[in-house]
């Protein structure tokens, strides 16, 4: 059976879970690893004054029992909170055997849910085989994906964080709901934009700082509590917090003037309002230091630098170094983060010089 003939049955299953759905397989705007076949969205309304939370589900559909569905679905964790592989099973008998064992093991390892589509009467039944664990992508990636794949359905206030979702194919209804929801922020968007631009031009801030995510944790204690609420085990949360505290103490000893920004899956260290490096949570027990170092140095590093983990991230111009948070020594990363600091500072200086020449 062709994959696009199965989309409707996956949509029915998602709607039964309380989500609004959309077929996004033909849009191709998310790229090879960012274009799920079917998406679902659910908005969790919070009390007045708090930003609503939006939850995104992404499904990769295959017309046969194919392990690549799991690997592709795992890539959607960059922007989706729950990711699923949906496979069409035509053979009779139970869903067992070597291939099924491998498929389930890989899905569990990669934190991907598994749906089984089987012929039923004149149609197809969609059954849950393995639940998808909740993961926490960055809000920036979530809304970037929705903007690419589903822009006509979702509207979000940049001030109070309220979200309005329209089941129609235009955003008129969503905008109307949002106009009411955003009365809680009671701020002038135009005035806010002017204030932000003035700060940037005067060198007292930048866009990344002025447009902080509403409702973000303000300190390490709040950030740790958020991770626990998101379902991470307490001992791993404490391990991550201890690693961040170790780097915080080291940076203070190095004499830096810095601030910290707390995001859903990482904590960033900034100097002069620019991110220099961050401590990332890659998985339950997997952690990394990500630094804004030049690509040439990251790929051919000095001897004292740690080994690069994975490829250089060209999109964000940063390198990732895996760490053992229980035995991490920030001094081992000092050369890396010092280079990142010089790199970020030199870019900021060039920008200021160019701006001055344009005036």
What is the number of helical segments per DSSP (H or I, 4+ residues)? 11
Helical content, roughly?
25-40%
Rg on CA atoms, Å: 23 Å
Count structural domains. Answer: 2
The percentage of residues in β strands lies in 15-25%
According to CATH, what is the class of the largest domain?
Alpha Beta
Q: Round the mean pLDDT to the nearest integer and report it.
A: 78
Q: What is the end-to-end distance?
A: 63 Å
Derived from helix and strand composition plus strand pairing, the structural class reads alpha+beta
- Main sheet specs: 6 strands, mixed
Oligomer class: single chain
Total strand segments? 13
- Specify the CATH architecture of the largest domain: 2-Layer Sandwich
Give the CA-based shape. elongated
Q: Predict the CATH topology of the largest domain.
A: Yope Regulator, Chain: A
- Sketch the topology as an H/E string, one letter per element: HEEEHEHEEHEEHHHHHEEEEHEH
Low-confidence stretches: 186-192, 204-214, 348-359
* Strand arrangement across the biggest beta sheet: 1-2-3-4-5-6
Describe the 3D structure.
With 359 residues, the protein is α+β, with helices and mostly antiparallel strands. It has two domains: 3-151, Trna Endonuclease, Chain: A, domain 1, CATH 3.40.1350; 206-358, Yope Regulator, Chain: A (2-Layer Sandwich). It is 36% helix and 23% strand. The chain contains eleven helices and 13 strands. The protein has helices at residues 7-16, 68-75, 98-109, 139-149, 172-181, 189-201, 207-210, 220-229, 234-253, 295-299, 334-358; strands at residues 20-23, 38-44, 53-62, 82-88, 113-120, 123-130, 154-156, 163-165, 259-262, 266-271, 274-283, 286-291, 319-323. The protein has a six-stranded mixed β-sheet, sandwiched between helices. α8 packs antiparallel against α9. The N and C termini lie far apart (63 Å). The relative contact order is 0.08.
